[in-house]
Amino acid sequence: MSQAILGLGSNISPDQNLPEALRQLARLVKVLAVSSRWETAAVGSNGPAFLNAAVLIETDLSSQTLKQQILAHIESVLGRVRTADKNAPRTIDLDILVFAGEVFDPNLFRLDHLILPVAEIAPELCEPDTGKSMRVLAKEHCCKPTAVCVGPLLY
Question: What are the residue numbers of the active site?
Fold first, then answer.
């Protein structure tokens, strides 16, 4: 069994889409921990703000199978439409951030919408170049007005 940290984000009906994505995910993999919901400005577009969260899961699937068969399926069911603009508003975005200890998203240690929720469920995860933990990075980022904790992600 492998553990993975997933990033969840939505800026189209996020109050409905985030919990539904988590419910569907919990039917297919073992959910170990769920972060709070964080509101952050859209990155790379002038779209509406996002609600973001992170989930720690356990699975016997490979990272590729998890992405292709589980995450892509949930995105499709929830009406995710991919366009040429990778930063366009979306109903749901599900990404593997860390899988079996390997960082899959290089922005994990740079962007508020990833740092803040991941710090809640994996505070000791360290950025390889600086050695800073997610807990330390979150302290550096949490006082920015662009990121606000809006409460638990219930499902």
Answer: 80, 90, 93, 95
Domain that holds residue 121: 2-152
Q: What is the pLDDT of residues 55-94, one digit of tens each?
A: 999 999 999 999 999 999 999 999 988 877 777 789 999 9
CA distance 135 to 27: 30
Q: What is the CATH number of the domain that holds 94?
A: 3.30.70.560
Q: How far is CA 9 from CA 6, 54, 60, 131, 133, in A?
A: 10, 9, 24, 27, 22
| Among candidate residues 56, 50, 1, the one with its CA nearest the CA of residue 34 | 56
| Burial category of 105 from C-beta neighbours within 10 Å (exposed 0-12, middle 13-18, buried 19 and up) | middle
pLDDT of residue 127: 94
